[in-house]
Amino acid sequence: MSDALVTGQDAAAAAASALMLGVAAMAALLVGQSQQPQRRGDVWLLVLVLACALSGLGDLALHLHTPVLRRWLDAPATAALLLPGPALWLYATTIIRASGTPPAGTWRAALPHVLPFALAMVLLAGDVPELAGTAQQAHRSAAELWGLVPIALQLLCYGLALGRRLARRHHQLRLHYSDLSRRSLRWLWLLFGLFTAVLVAWVLTWPLPVAWSNVATNLLMAAVLALVGLHGPRQVPAAALALAANDGRALAQDPSRDCMDRAAPRVGDDGPALPGVAPVAAATESVLQPSPVPGEAPAAPYRKAVLTPAQVLAMEEGLRQAMECDKLYLESDLTLAQLAQALAVSPHRLSQFLSQYLGLSFYDYVNGLRIDAVKATLARPQSARRSLLEIALECGFGSKSTFNAVFKKSTGLSPTAYRASLAEAGPPDC
Questions:
Q1: How many CB atoms lie within 10 A of CB 420?
Q2: 3-state secondary structure of 65
Q3: Total structural domains in the chain?
Q4: What digits encode the pLDDT tens for the residues 60-72?
Q5: CA-to-CA distance for 415 and 406, rounded, in angstroms?
């Protein structure tokens, strides 16, 4: 009876391992045939897939009771567990690296990350186990568990570092762009979350019989590799998420705009903008104190740089013209660099003003104006028959998902619920 149970466990584990290997082969083929320009990123994605496949091949040899194959696969299959963390890190770093930084695909950048794998191969190659017959342990020994702890800790460290890097990158994107739909880190967050789930499942199943532990982890890994193969090669080029530090392409300027005088006050990087602004600023100096973003420490570049009252007033006037008169927020892909060019200031200065004096990121500032425009449009009776998406696109939003997320965060209601509340309230009293 016990022998039949063991045989059944091994059959299930072997089937799960074979399924994972098949999915890994498909993923490797899809990634290898990718024609996207971010070849270095695809290389690390391929390394990730092959490392998982090698580990699965070792599990397959274990549960098929093939001592000879196990003997030669034991070392590389174990060492391969040290590759998914570095490969995932290097892939994500290549995708989101800032322009001008060395790509993660260079050997100089990658060597420290793959060195543990190389050392493990050397150490384990000299200790090839002698396996007799088809005997195997149902549960992992204490020595095996202690040997897996460093691997789990390495994966955990890479996961934490990657999560921190993605969070920092997301914050940077919000400082530079008003629409993140084409610069979303959603794929990398998904990949990070899935591999975290695999790691947690792997650790939690250690007390179980080896066969059932491998069934759980290999099935979960097969699902992850399927997503990698289907979506990984379709991701944006490596440089597409680089911050637009020099993206100063001018917006189309309308020479006939008549909201106000084109010669509005402009403020440069140093000194007051116009002489006539300084006396007014002196009287209001006490109220123009920076208000940092709630929950965030002041950004390092801003701690020593302080805007003068004249610069603050000139910036306010420039933003009023750009947003109230020219309505630049209607440009769905408006960037910090583009708005800064329209105001004749540096992107750094504009970001400093938004952060310190308005307590907003560029993303929140622009989309707040778009939300106000949407609410104003919805308040008009003639907009009752227009779709919410049409109104959102008209007011500057680039996608439905961004509009829904920003609107709910701003109002606490979905756009549909907000419109329904307006209908219930009825028209305002005259």
A1: 12
A2: coil
A3: 2
A4: 888 887 777 777 7
A5: 10
